[in-house]
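Q: Structure tokens for this one, please.
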Amino acid sequence: LLTLGGGVLESGSSGTCNEVVERDVDKRMDRTSDRPIATHQIPVRNAMTFGVALALASLGLFWLVNPLAAALGLAAILFYSVIYTLVLKPNTVQNTVLGGAAGALPALIGWAAVEGSIGVPGLVLAGVIFLWTPAHFYNLALAYKDDYEAGGFPMMPVVRGETATRKHIVYYLGATLVASGVLAALTSLGALYSLTSAALGAVFLWAVVRLHREQTEQAAFRAFHASNAYLGLLLVAVVVDALVL
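A: Here is the predicted structure, written as tokens:
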């Protein structure tokens, strides 16, 4: 409960800080133009106070778990709010790939909460999420290409084009499936995890193949939702397999 609570507060803090930093850019993008800071419904000072308060509360909960979880929690907040939002996102086409570290850190926080250390299987689990991130987010970037271009962000479809982006989705999906197999090999996860991974991977791949054939916004959203289902259900399978079987 402490770890999950800290994770919720950490995500809220990072998201709040992100919206503070990008408030002017958000006004230029249809998807984000109605956010409360961009529309001045919430003053910047109040938002920053709220974000910092969430961060402190998050780190307090993580500290009650162990110092390593707290250190990783701080790293996650700083990486997303500062390194990704201020440095990577507006300056490099590899922002999504490198920014995947922010999403992978919570896996290490959870591992550290249980084990008190960072083991190789924990790093592989984080690696699954890191590699999944481009295969997941590039679909959204395709759907909102014009929005990101209006915001001035060098997203893959804007800089390299839609064809190259669809190819990269396949590359990172393949890497994700390999990493999920490595996780099974390095842990005691059994048939439930393996079968779930294979079935979900097949559905994700099917959605990506349809994206290549149809090349439409609807197909991009379909692949995006398939990617959400893949990771969510894969992690549920990890929990069930580890606790029940």
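A few notes: The two ends are 23 Å apart (CA to CA). The longest helix spans residues 217-244.
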